[in-house]
Amino acid sequence: MPFPSPSCGTSADSQRAADGGASPSKGSTAGRPSTLSTFAAEFLGTFAQFLGGIAAGAALSAVLSGKPEWSVATDGFATNGYGELSPGGFSLLSVLIVEFVLTAIFLFVILGTTDGRAAVGFAPLAIGLTLTLIHLVSIPVSNTSVNPARSLGMAVYGGADALGQVWAFFVAPLAGAAVAGLLYSALFGADDKQIENNEETAIAAA
Fold it and tell me: Of 58, 81, 172, 192, which one has the fewest beta carbons inside 10 Å?
């Protein structure tokens, strides 16, 4: 028989209820609001970061424009770059490597210190010190990005050359972050506490 009869479907649903389970439609409905709300929150958070970066660039531009002899061409604008726009004159390859590696390290530290299995209370200190070290290492190379929003916010006001190079500070940090996430998951597995919290959120949203 190609399709189950209504009685068969009712029996199966009754058995799931007796076993404490949910029907497939209920399960997919329960998961969908959580997934969509999480995606929306992440999208809005990312969008807000880019807006914040551009707003910060506008504020910095307003401050610097108050100095009569200042100009982007001669004094720069805290932009990220390679070649002539690199503080130390480093090449594109050097900048990509530094931004990739340092972003991966930064994300690895964030994932490790905010893991539900980690000791509580050390995340702010570890993350802050790591970011400080990242700046000390990479300012001479790329002027430190490890965040595309920071790079775009400055590039918007830094001239055509800065905008032309900003792609590198999307590619390298995003690739580094992705590798860090995959590597952390492969080495340490999932955070069971976080999974349990996500499941509870999905059930509550159903």
Answer: 192
